[in-house]
Write a structure and sequence with these properties.
Radius of gyration: 14 Å
Order of helices and strands: HHHHHH
Shape: flat
Number of strands: 0
Strand content: under 5%
Amino acid sequence: VATEIFLKAVLVQECNLTDNQLMRFSHKLEDASKACAEATKEKIFEEIGKRASLYPPVSARYDDTEWSSTSVWQAATLTQQTGAAVTRLYTDRDLRASISPTEPLRP
């Protein structure tokens, strides 16, 4: 859910989309990521879209499903990377160089 909110916040900010316009994306993170990449010209959003399948389908959110620790951490990492990308986009906060050498989003 957080990744979806981050992506839709970008679409509101960059494209002035209304709630009704955002609804066309529904929960399709791939489509929202693609729109973010087009609006911002930031490749990170393309990468986020490619990895959106790490999340379960919306219909499975409320099922009693076991996730492996690896799957949970991969999804959590993608959410954190999305939040960081949005933060970097709208602030002067980019701490990547002080933490580690700049690396592309890992699959």
